[in-house]
């Protein structure tokens, strides 16, 4: 009798699976692997003293999202504001979180020849940090003029 009971208990434990059903231990491992994967992106921030543009691309350069100051506010004078920069970062964060992006390489660019970027760049980076993104690298890619075209005026200079 005891042997029959043991056999019946084994049958209850080892239930046959339906076709296409994945064992629990394998499906749990897959979930863990998906959670670990962190996607990185490049964030290009262009800030002048009139506007702020944020362009997020993947590592190959394909556009993920693009937000400007004009998309956030209707006042031209406020497009380069740090406050508007925060709203830009919030909108970018909403678009990017769905794709699983966790960290950014940030490239800041000011207008060519300007000594410093506009006021929105610092606010964007700060608010992205608060949103929970990891900022791997911050790089200044402002273009520097080296020589350029000949100045107006001739040999003796421009006379007024």
Can you walk through the features of this model?
The protein is of the alpha/beta class and 160 residues long. The chain has a domain at 37-140: Nucleotidyltransferase, domain 5, CATH 3.30.420.80. The chain is 36% helix and 24% strand. The chain starts with a helix and ends in a 20-residue tail after the last strand. The model has no long low-confidence stretch (mean pLDDT 84).
Concise synopsis of the structure shown:
The chain is an alpha/beta fold. The chain has helices at residues 2-13, 24-36, 69-72, 82-97, 120-131; strands at 39-47, 52-57, 63-68, 101-110, 134-140.
Could you give the topology of this structure?
Blueprint: H1 2-13, H2 24-36, E1 39-47, E2 52-57, E3 63-68, H3 69-72, H4 82-97, E4 101-110, H5 120-131, E5 134-140
Parallel strand pairs: 1-4, 4-5
Antiparallel strand pairs: 1-2, 2-3
| Radius of gyration, whole Å | 28 Å
**Overall shape:** elongated
The poorly predicted ranges are none
Total of DSSP H or I helical runs spanning 4+ residues: 5
The overall pLDDT average reads 84
The largest sheet has its strands arranged as 3-2-1-4-5
Largest sheet: 5 strands, mixed
Report how far the terminal alpha carbons are from each other: 118 Å
Q: Count the E strands.
A: 5
N-to-C SSE string, H for helix and E for strand:
HHEEEHHEHE
Q: Under the CATH scheme, which architecture of the domain at 37-140 would be assigned?
A: 2-Layer Sandwich
Instruction: Provide the CATH topology of the domain at 37-140.
Output: Nucleotidyltransferase, domain 5
For this structure, what is the CATH class of the domain at 37-140?
Alpha Beta
How large is the share of residues in beta strands?
15-25%
CATH homologous superfamily (4th level) name of the domain at 37-140 = Ribosomal protein S11/S14
Q: Structural class per helix/strand content?
A: alpha/beta
Task: Indicate the percent of residues in helices.
Answer: 25-40%
């Amino acid at each position: 009798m005891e042997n029959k009971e043991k056999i019946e208990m084994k049958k209850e434990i080892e239930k046959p699976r339906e076709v296409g059903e994945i064992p629990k231990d394998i499906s749990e491992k897959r979930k863990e692997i998906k959670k670990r994967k962190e996607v990185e992106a490049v964030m290009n921030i262009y800030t002048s003293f009139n506007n702020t543009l944020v362009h997020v691309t993947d590592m190959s350069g394909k556009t993920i999202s693009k937000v400007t100051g004009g998309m956030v506010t209707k006042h031209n004078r406020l497009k380069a504001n740090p406050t508007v920069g925060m709203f830009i970062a919030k909108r970018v964060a909403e678009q990017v979180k769905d794709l699983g992006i966790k960290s950014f390489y940030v490239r800041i660019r000011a207008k060519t020849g300007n000594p410093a970027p506009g006021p929105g760049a610092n606010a964007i980076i700060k608010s992205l940090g608060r949103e929970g993104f990891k900022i791997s690298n911050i790089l200044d890619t402002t273009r520097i003029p080296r020589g350029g075209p000949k100045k107006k005026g001739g040999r003796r200079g421009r006379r007024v």
